[in-house]
Amino acid sequence: MSNQTSYIGRFAPSPTGPLHAGSLVAAMASYLDAKANHGRWLLRMEDVDEARTAAGAAESILADLSTLGMHWDGEVVFQSQRTALYEAAFDRLGRLAYPCGCTRREIVDSRICVAADGAAVYPGTCRSGLPVGKPARAYRLRVPDPGHVDELIIFDDRWLGRVQQHLAIEVGDFVLKRADGFWAYQLAVVVDDADQGVTHVVRGADLLDSTARQIYLQHQLKLPTPHYLHVPVITNADGEKLSKQNGAQAIDLKQPLHALSKAAWFLGLDIGQVDSVAAFWPLATTAWANLDLSRHG
Ligand code: GLU
Asked: Could you tell me the pTM of the whole model?
């Protein structure tokens, strides 16, 4: 990367529980990429979905990162304190955003298509106005019709190579403000990445499917598009992403080096023997810098 001083990366955990082996991989990849590029590494707590936020989880993630020797730059940002920014961005979208009265069940029953992430593609029921007698539940962003030039989003992922998604066919008009009143992840993450000047997003491949939506939203809000790198995610025996929801164990912080070594191994980093957390990071940074990312594509 040529312009090394302008790199701003971030780790953006949802504080639904303590750090686990899966979230450590995303944290480590984003941290090493920032360090290898002499950049800043910001920390953002994605607690916009207050219903899923667990008491004490943000504090424990911060403590865990410190124990693991991962030090963030600047103040930690909490999405729950930034709703005015999301509201302002939403307002800027004007008529591209529209109220939707459909329930989840109604969308699934319409069976137009199933998106890559298993969700139903929105059939566009409320696109031209709420059906009579239906109250607004959520707000959606209008995406271009199938065949429209802006409907196909293409980007080059630094790990996976060229990725493309047809928004109209594979996603449909997507939610910006949820039926429970919370701002949707897609809107919050786009607003925050731009507001924090993030130039490089490094995160788990479970979010790959969201990236085209985020790029489209950046275009509509006239915000820059960062570089993206999606690392593989750890799965359980059923092939599901390891997550707090399916019982991922918190990292054993009595053995921080063991947790770090496992995450590094998962990322394909060859570090050799190290005897301290302090010794681990410079070696891991060099190993990351030497990774041939193009071989994954
Ligand atoms: N908060 C998301 C998560 O924990 C990550 C969002 C992102 O990196 O864009 O899965």
From this structure: 0.93
Q: Which residues line ligand 1 (CB under 6 A)?
A: 12-14, 46, 189, 203, 207
User: What are the beta bridge partners of residue 165?
Assistant: 153
| Mean pLDDT confidence for 100-109 | 83
Chain mean position to CA 79: 13
Q: How many CA atoms lie within 13 A of 240 on its CB side?
A: 9
Separation of alpha carbons 230 and 156, rounded Å? 11
Ligand 1 closest atom vs CA 214: 9
Q: Name the band, by pLDDT with cuts 50, 70 and 90, for residue 263.
A: very high
User: Distance between CA 231 and CA 131 in Å, rounded?
Assistant: 42
| Eight-class DSSP state of 77 | E
- Identify the helix (H) or strand (E) that includes residue 289: helix 277-289
Residue of the nearest CA to atom 6 in ligand 1?
Answer: 12
